[in-house]
Amino acid sequence: MRRSKFTPGDFNLVVKRARAGRGLYTFDPIPKGVCIIEYTGPVLHDDDWTGSNNRYLFQITEKKAINGWNKKNLARYINHSCRPNCEIEIRKGRVFVMAKRAIKSGEELAYDYGKEYFDGFIKPMGCRCLKCKPRWRAPKSAKRARH
Ligand SMILES: [Zn+2]
After folding, report:
1. Measured between alpha carbons, how far is 10 from 14 in angstroms, rounded to an integer?
2. Distance, CA 47 to ligand 1 centroid (Å)?
3. Which of 69, 63, 66 has its CA nearest to residue 50?
4. Contact indicator for 78, 103 with CB cutoff of 8 Å
5. Which of 17, 63, 130, 141 has its CA 20 to 30 A from that of 2?
6. What's the pLDDT band for 47 if we cut at 50, 70, 90?
7. What is the pTM of this model?
């Protein structure tokens, strides 16, 4: 693949237990502005997802979304944050996660899921991001995360 701004860097990313279920962490430092990973999966059209409760639908346009519900799509493990270190860029119908700032080794990756998702899925449970709950810890007896 030709390298461009949107070619994901070869970063060592690992899924680990996080404040909100599981999360995606980087073991490498990531410079600001580079592409970290692509959010991948089959493209769905609005007829296909009407009424669907799939949390991994990433809407690209009013009528198109990527179904990220597949384990190869590591980007699906990236959690929401109200003060994120990543941001999304949509380019030619593809979804790329970019570094919003320089990210240190060991940090959890997060981007802002947007108001609609936040109000629908996160607000009802309470947001557990670093900004909203700086001292939150998972209880020891917490059940295994569902995803
Ligand atoms: Zn938050």
Report:
1. 12
2. 31
3. 63
4. no
5. 63
6. confident
7. 0.87
* Residue 132 Cα to ligand 1 middle (Å): 4
Give me the mean pLDDT over the 82-90 stretch.
97
Distance 99 CA to ligand 1 centre (A): 18
Q: Is the pLDDT of residue 104 over 70?
A: yes
Residue 71 has which token pair? 């384990």
Assess contact for 147 and 22: CB atoms under 8 A: yes
Higher pLDDT among residues 142 and 40, named by residue: 40
| Token output for 112 | 């802002």
Distance 42 CA to ligand 1 centre (A): 29
Alpha-carbon span 55 to 53, nearest angstrom: 6
Q: Which amino acid appears at position 22 of this protein? A: R
If you count them, how many residues does the chain have? 147
Q: Separation of 111 CA from ligand 1 center, angstroms? A: 10
